[in-house]
Each structure stands twice: as structure tokens, then as C-alpha cells.
What we know:
Blueprint: H1 8-18, H2 22-29, H3 33-40, H4 48-57, H5 89-95, E1 107-110, E2 115-119, E3 129-135, E4 151-158, E5 160-165, E6 168-173, E7 177-181, E8 185-190, E9 197-204
Helix pairs in contact: 2-3
Amino acid sequence: MVDELPIGEKLKSRRHELGISLRKLSEQTNLSASFLNQVEHGKARMSLGSLQAVAEALGVTMLYFLSDVPASIPNKTVETDPARLTSSPEADALVFNPVVDGYERAKLVLPLQNIQYELLVPSLGGKMVAVQGRATVEAGNFARRLREPTEEFLYVLQGTLLVGLKGGDHYLHAGDSIYFKGEDLITLVCASEDEEAAWISVITPPVF
Length: 208
């Protein structure tokens, strides 16, 4: 699991954009204003549940808090010379890069629950979103009820993942996959004995 990436700046920016005070956000999320202030200044960490509550209050998905792509790694497949860009479809194709380099993935790290997500699609504007998740045995149940009905495909890359649905529990090992409706999800737990679980989730619509 990599080190935590700060989300405080994005929280503060979105809060200011909406004109919401810390006190108001505190009332909407049941999190103290002092705690939220510490998060904004990088002095406190949020759990998965707290982050979801903040995201819903601010009208964004949790992926809004993903880290930015590192500027130190140039994207060689995108044309960035303004003199060569026009409003033509060809120019639009140059601006959009369909490839996500493995070293450039935006990340969301939640150290309190030993969970990490990486974005596998180039943008959040499509009809689905794909993320790679990692969780340790200590992560506990990290299943969440999303704000809209969804459909999800999950493929296990490493370890064992317990996927609990309304119809029963399923233990998935590396190479196994499962397809389900988001509202049926009850449990997501790393069920490995001595290694973290890694998986890919594809969700539609992209309300993760």
C-alpha cells in the first residue's frame, strides 16, 4: 500500500466553489468542523465512510478526490501545441488520449482502512468507470451503497475477495469474476490469509 495522497486541497476547493462553510458541511456530514479543517490542512485522515459523506454533501463522486496525474511524467501521445489545435474533430481526437499509462494513474488512498483505488479510464465523463482496488486483511468491510442504482463487474487480480450479495456470499480468487447490481452488494472484504487483495471494478453509471 502506498503512502496517503492529500485530499484536503480538493475538499477545500470544492467547498469554496459551492460557497459552503465548514460549519454547514459539518452539519451535512455529522463530522466536526474542527476535524474537517484538519483534513483540509493535511493534518487528519478520513475513513471511507467519512469521505463518502463529504462527497455526497459536495455533490461529487469519491473519484473527485483522486490525486492528479503526476506532471513530471509527460504524456507523449497527446498533442499539446495550441498552434496545431483547432475545433475540428481531428483536433478533438488529438486532445483526448484513450491510453492510461500504468505510471500515471490517478490514485485515492485511504490509510485508515488500508484501501487504495487507481483510475483505469482516461476521464470521468464516460458512461462507465473502471478502477483497480487494493485492500489488506485489516481493511474490514468496505462495501458502500452508491447514490444511484448501478451494475458492476468485478475481476480479482490477486488474493481472495469476499463479495457478499443479497443472495449469498461468494469467495473469489485470482482469475475469478462476478457481475451484480450495486444495490445487492452487502460485503466486500479481503479474505486472504497473508496477502492483500487486488481487483478491477467496472461500474455503470460512473457514480463511484
